[in-house]
Every structure is written in structure tokens, then in C-alpha cells.
Amino acid sequence: MIIRQAREEDAPDIAAVFNAYIGKSHMVTVGRSPKECVDLMQNKRAQVLVGHDFRGWMMGYASVKPYSERGGYAGAAEVSIFMDPQHTGKGGGQDLYDVLLPTALRLGYHHLTAKIWTANDGSIRFHERNGFKLVGIQHGIGMSGGRRIDMTIMERV
Ligand SMILES: CC(C)(COP(=O)(O)OP(=O)(O)OC[C@H]1O[C@@H](n2cnc3c(N)ncnc32)[C@H](O)[C@@H]1OP(=O)(O)O)[C@@H](O)C(=O)NCCC(=O)NCCS
């Protein structure tokens, strides 16, 4: 997989990867627009990485963004990662985090948070493998298909 910093023209592909998970009960309830992706890229304290195959097909993306814009949280960030459904389980997510996690450190972030729907065992396992530890569970914080769902908060310090 070829990994590089995202450019504005990647925004529709990034949104498409994210939106592929709409309706999967434990993942995405509301889609993301290309404009939201561009806004994230334009945040000087954020970084979006994309991974492509040799034909230029987007396989996935990962991002780090400030946890809060308030000064007291300057060293804290939130991470996110989504692989195209056709490209999960092939090592691409790990390849992206192998670049993203050192990038986050270079940006000055010493504390990373991952928010994961509790039913998403695969992502929880993936984050554990990448040094994230359980902080706790926010019970019933989300809503999907008319049901309240739990969010697992993990941190890497
Ligand atoms: C979670 C996700 C990013 C992982 O990326 P991936 O490319 O599928 O994972 P990799 O193939 O790089 O796997 C790396 C390691 O993570 C763990 N892992 C990944 N997916 C897993 C799963 N479904 N179940 C258990 N462990 C998993 C394994 O330990 C794996 O290492 P191993 O193969 O040596 O055992 C990807 O599956 C994905 O995008 N899933 C759907 C969207 C999503 O859940 N995003 C995160 C929202 S919080």
C-alpha cells in the first residue's frame, strides 16, 4: 500500500470509504461529506493519511486531530481509521497506523484517544494491538436503529 498525506482531491474517496459503513449497526450512523474531509485536512493541527493500491484505488485512511481546541488539551488528539470494506484484514490498517502514530508524536501529541462503538470488537482488538488501553465505556451514548449503543473509550499515552 502506498501511504501519503491526503490532498483535497482525495476528499470524495475518503468520504466514500467512511460512508461504506453507514447502516452497519455498530459503526456509522451518519455519513460524512467531502467538505468535512477537506475541513479536517485544512486544520493545521490535524493530519490525514491515505493508502492506495498500485492502481490508485483508495484502500483506506487514518487521521489524527486535536482532542479539543482549548489550550489545556494541546498535547491530546483523537485518532480515527477506516479501511475500504474490501481491504480489511490484509495489514493495511496496521500499515497506516505504523505511519500515523509516529506522525502524531511529531505533531506534539502525547495522548491519543480512540472512540469505538463497543460492539466493534475488531477495532478494539486492533487498537489494543497498537498500545491503546481501555479507559471506560460510555453507556447508551449513541443511537443506532432506534437503540441506544455504548462507546468504548481507549487511550494511548
Ligand atoms: C479496524 C480496521 C481499521 C483494522 O484495519 P485492518 O487493515 O482490517 O487490520 P490489519 O489487517 O492491519 O490487522 C492488524 C491487527 O489488528 C487486529 N485486528 C484487525 N481487525 C481485527 C478483527 N476484525 N478482529 C480481531 N482483530 C483484528 C489483529 O490483531 C491484526 O493483527 P494480526 O492479523 O497479526 O492478528 C479495519 O478493519 C476497518 O476499517 N474496519 C471497519 C471500520 C472500523 O471499524 N474503523 C474503526 C472505527 S473506530
Q: Care to describe what's here?
A:
By secondary structure, the protein is of the alpha+beta class. It has one domain: Aminopeptidase. Helix content is 27%, strand content 36%. It has four helices and seven strands, in the order E-H-H-E-E-E-H-E-H-E-E. The protein has a seven-stranded mixed β-sheet with strand order 1-2-3-4-5-7-6, sandwiched between helices. A hairpin with a 5-residue loop joins strand 2 and strand 3. The chain is globular and about 40 Å long. The protein starts with a strand and ends with a strand. The mean pLDDT is 94. Coenzyme A binds next to strand 4, helix 3 and helix 4.
Molecules bound to protein? coenzyme A
Q: Which value, in Å, is the CA radius of gyration? A: 15 Å
Mean pLDDT: 94
Percent of sequence in beta strands = 35-45%
Number of strands: 7
CATH class: Alpha Beta
For the termini, the CA-CA separation is 27 Å
Q: What count of structural domains? A: 1
Largest sheet: 7 strands, mixed
SS-derived structural category: alpha+beta
**CATH topology description:** Aminopeptidase
- Helix and strand succession? EHHEEEHEHEE
- Unreliable stretches covering 5 or more consecutive residues: none
Overall 3D shape: globular
CATH architecture label name: 3-Layer(aba) Sandwich
Count of helical regions:
4
Describe the secondary structure blueprint for this structure.
Layout: E1 2-5, H1 11-19, H2 34-42, E2 47-52, E3 58-66, E4 76-83, H3 92-106, E5 111-117, H4 121-129, E6 133-144, E7 147-156
Bound molecules: coenzyme A.
Coenzyme A (COA) binds next to β4, α3 and α4.
